[in-house]
Design goal:
By secondary structure, the protein is an alpha+beta fold. The chain is built from three helices and five strands, in the order βααββαββ. Strands 1-2-3-5-4 form a five-stranded antiparallel beta sheet, with helices on one face. The longest helix has 22 residues. It is globular, with a radius of gyration of 15 Å. It starts with a strand and ends with a strand.
Length: 136
């Protein structure tokens, strides 16, 4: 498992995608799988920046990534505002575009692109989002 710490700012999303993508490539994932993994990581980091830190400039995002038992595990830890993803409802993708609110697809995309998505928040210890992609 490799870990990097990034400022929780949108300007660092490219670096987060690159970090996760390089480890996925070294682990033998296909280009299509790597794209999905990077997109899920981008959505996760964007949600942390926007909601946990509310786009303030002082927060940090710790991203760990590596293979465990044939699965790529990506963990993102932050000390921002907690958010219970289990309360997020599936978006109505059949609704007319003009009736849908802007945004709100990040968690849906993470769940569709990755095999597992877990979130936990512990007072005084921060928030941990873990995404898993099985190989093959």
């Amino acid at each position: 498992m490799q870990t990097m710490i990034f400022p929780a700012q949108f300007e660092f999303l490219d670096e987060i995608r690159r970090f996760v993508g390089e480890l996925a490539r070294k682990s033998g994932f296909s280009d299509k799988e790597i794209y999905s993994i990077q997109l899920a990581a981008d959505e996760a980091a964007s949600n942390i920046i926007e909601h946990a830190y509310q786009d303030s400039s002082g927060g940090m995002l710790e991203c760990s990534c590596g293979m465990e038992a044939g699965r790529l595990v990506i963990s993102m830890h932050d000390d921002g505002k907690p958010f219970d993803i289990s309360r997020v409802k599936e978006p109505n993708l059949k609704a007319d575009l003009s009736d849908r609110q802007i945004g709100g697809l990040g968690i849906y995309l993470m769940r569709k692109l990755m095999d597992e998505v877990h979130y936990e928040s512990k007072p005084g210890r921060g928030n941990l989002l873990t995404m898993i992609k099985r190989k093959g």
